[in-house]
Amino acid sequence: MKKTFPLSVNRLHLPFFLKYLWAGLTFLFLPTAGLTQVLPLHVDGSLIKDSNGKIIALRGVNHHGFLDVPDGAWDAPGQPLYSGMGQWNPEAVKKTLEDFHRVGFNVVRFHTIVDWWKTNPIAYQDGYRKVVYQEPYRQMVADTVKWAGEKGLYVIFDFFALKNLNGRQSGQESLPWATWGKFPDVVKNRAEFVSLWDSVTSTLGKYPNVLFELYNEPHGDAATEAEWFKFVDEVLPVIRAHTPNPVIVQWDYNCWVNLDYPPPGHPASTLDWIEKHPLKDDNLVYGAHLYHNSGGGAPGLAHRGTSKVKNLWERRDIEKALQFAMFPKVIEEQHKPILITEIGAYLTNGGKDSDHEVEWLRNTLSILNGFGVGYVAWAWQSDQQLGHGMLHEGKPNQAGRVLLDSLKDH
Predict the structure, then answer these.
(1) Which residues contact 262 (CB under 8 A, 6 or more apart)?
(2) Is 0.85 topped by the overall pTM?
(3) Which pairs count as long-range contacts for 261-264, CB under 8 Å and 24+ apart, including other chains?
(4) Which are the contacts of 368, defined by CB distance < 8 A and separation ≥ 6?
(5) Phi-psi region for residue 32, left (φ > 0), alpha (ψ -120 to 50) or beta?
(6) Cα 171 from chain centroid?
(7) pLDDT digits (tens, 9 = 90+) for 208-235
(8) Phi, psi (rounded to 5 degrees) for 273
């Protein structure tokens, strides 16, 4: 039985509603857009709703290809792994998006490169390929967002890395601007990152199916945290000049809880930053990532031990960890919507380890369904390519099948 949480007493006021109406009409009359199955989203208490008032549980997958090449690396269905890298094939993109919707997903999340948005390349070169595209990077992204809407999908646009260096993303910075970021030629300061988001939302904000995630996993010490939320306060009014669409805010990796040492003390343990940093915007979604094993052997969502950590997978332990991590408090008391923008199972180790990963994923998705919390799985890619990949030779592996089954459990 699904758990129902009380709604916020603060209902959507009329001017904001009119913004959604305007956004929906704009999308319907965009050139060549045609009819769409998706409607603008807004936050109502702990719920996400469309402009008809229907509750929308966002559940889908990450597609990481816009980190690798400007075209998004869309392997055509039935074609070999990596065959889509450096190939801008609109029909392959549309077919993949159509397949996402057909199996039950309603959202796809795109990591991408800050430098590509800034420079808008029309050509790309690494050690394997040299490509001149028919259209520049920003247009390929905008086309993909539009086609996703036509296929019934919401899109999460998310900056992950500052650069792509010879075919590899440059890695996750704690914050993207100097002195935290390694590439001040890309983002020299906080104001420039605000300006980049001004550019992104002026281009993509007209599409009501896109949500904007400000940055993947910002993290660091207290000074870094203060700097990050200064940026969030500055950027939200800039974004709102272009679009009323939901914005996803995250701080730290979230959520790691050692059940041997409650209450959690690690800065990446809880969602306490949501209450600590109240934000003046009524259309925000709060992001978190959940893993049993991130792939680096680090502690997972629920674990025990000190020098030797044991990650836990049984339902009762996961429920305890989420309680300590403040999920029920954020939903029931603070009336804020949570979206898990990354969750997955690390199957590379095989054997009992993989069995525990799959059981952890099954139990966690079931609990999130009970909370009414959406999730975006990492990733609907081959497990020969990514440790958390949910496909094997083009078909769902164990983790992929668990994900698909979870879509029916809400």
Answers:
(1) 324
(2) yes
(3) 262/324, 263/324, 264/324, 264/325
(4) 340, 374, 375
(5) left
(6) 17
(7) 999 999 999 999 999 999 999 999 999 9
(8) -65, -20
